[in-house]
């Protein structure tokens, strides 16, 4: 008698070593992912090419106008969602400015979303050196530095519609080896903010709304000790600016005056120690590059009760306090006792009533 054959046959094996076909939807999803990735890579590539072409064209146009921008090395990256431009040791040479201006920095970076190249965010690394005049024998040189400088530009249609700049830990110091000692002042601030945008006026008008604020602003003239820190805030409008703006200050002033240019002081606020100043009004440039017009001011602080006790704002506050006490009227600043009055700027002087209280420097 023979034993029954109980050994498994090959067909009884549970694993044949072969894999079945993947489901169709998995294949379709994988192909879709590959297609999207390839398409987006093409979009990013053409975006970077467009950005690089825009930069190259702008540099060529500026060079034709006598403004040369250069990088030690320029690179474009940022895949997959951004376009980043990096520039090592950037420099600018503006030959059509009067005086001739040159500047150099440590680094520059700019970034934009690949789908919106008209909104650019940038950073500049200090220190930055600015020189003016002849290259071999410059008339002045200023060295600036900061902890962080960031800005943004919005330029739909190729024209700047808005710009913002924020600086922390700012320092600017004249180079005494160039301008000589006693010819300038060191300026520091813990924060500086500058914001500008095209005003909502007629399409062909070139009015700019501007806001400036500084915290712990200190100005130290050469050979003197530092002043007390000033917190400054300005909100206003620059009206009828010439476009395109001439680089020569005298030509700019002439064109601005011809356009009926103005500075609308919506709100000016300055605080130094316990002294507070508020101002509002409208100014226009005169033929000598000085402001003229009328401004209403308010002043509060110790210089009102004891003129000269604080000597705020470079000694201007005691003079203003004395004049306001004689020709002004009682007022208040957020509940603090103050005096106010209207000052007139004309013929290079500041008048409160018939009394001249200060000389006006040339702006241009």
Automatic annotation (TrEMBL):
Entry keywords, A to Z: Membrane, Transmembrane, Transmembrane helix
Top-level taxon of the source organism: Bacteria
InterPro entries in the cross-refs: DUF2125
A family per Pfam: DUF2125
Transmembrane stretches, start-end: 25-46
Region Disordered, annotated ranges: 272-293
UniProt protein name: DUF2125 domain-containing protein
Species: Microbaculum marinisediminis
């Amino acid at each position: 008698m023979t034993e029954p054959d109980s050994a498994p046959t090959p067909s009884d094996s549970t694993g044949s070593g072969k894999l079945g076909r993947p489901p169709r939807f998995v294949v379709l999803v994988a192909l879709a992912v590959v297609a999207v990735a390839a398409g987006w890579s093409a979009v990013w590539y053409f975006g970077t090419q467009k950005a690089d072409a825009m930069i190259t064209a702008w540099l060529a146009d500026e060079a034709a106008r006598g403004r040369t921008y250069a990088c030690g090395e320029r690179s474009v990256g940022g895949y997959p969602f951004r376009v980043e431009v990096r520039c090592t040791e950037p420099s600018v040479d503006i030959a059509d400015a009067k005086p001739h201006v040159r500047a150099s920095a440590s680094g520059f970076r700019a970034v934009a979303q690949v789908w919106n190249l008209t909104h650019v965010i940038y950073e500049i690394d200090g220190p930055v050196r600015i020189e003016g005049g002849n290259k071999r024998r410059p008339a002045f040189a200023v060295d600036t530095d900061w902890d962080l400088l960031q800005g943004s530009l919005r330029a739909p249609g190729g024209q700047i519609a808005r710009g913002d700049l924020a600086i922390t830990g700012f320092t600017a110091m004249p180079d005494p080896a160039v301008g000589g000692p006693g010819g300038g002042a060191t300026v520091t601030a813990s924060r500086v903010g500058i914001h500008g945008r095209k005003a909502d006026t007629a399409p062909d008008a070139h009015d700019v709304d501007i806001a400036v604020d500084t915290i712990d602003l200190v100005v130290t003239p050469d050979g003197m000790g530092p002043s007390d820190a000033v917190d400054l805030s300005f909100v206003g409008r620059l009206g009828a600016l010439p476009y395109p703006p001439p680089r020569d200050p005298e030509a700019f002033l002439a064109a601005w005056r011809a356009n009926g240019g103005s500075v609308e002081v919506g709100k000016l606020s300055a605080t130094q120690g316990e002294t507070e100043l508020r101002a509002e009004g409208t100014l226009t440039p005169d033929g000598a590059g000085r402001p003229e017009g009328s401004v209403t001011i308010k002043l509060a602080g110790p210089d009102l009760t004891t003129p000269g006790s604080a000597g705020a704002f470079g000694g201007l506050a005691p003079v203003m306090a004395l004049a306001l006490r004689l020709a002004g009227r009682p007022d208040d600043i957020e509940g603090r006792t103050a005096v106010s009055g209207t000052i007139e700027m004309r013929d290079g002087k500041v008048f409160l009533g018939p009394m001249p209280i200060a000389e006006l420097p040339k702006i241009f």
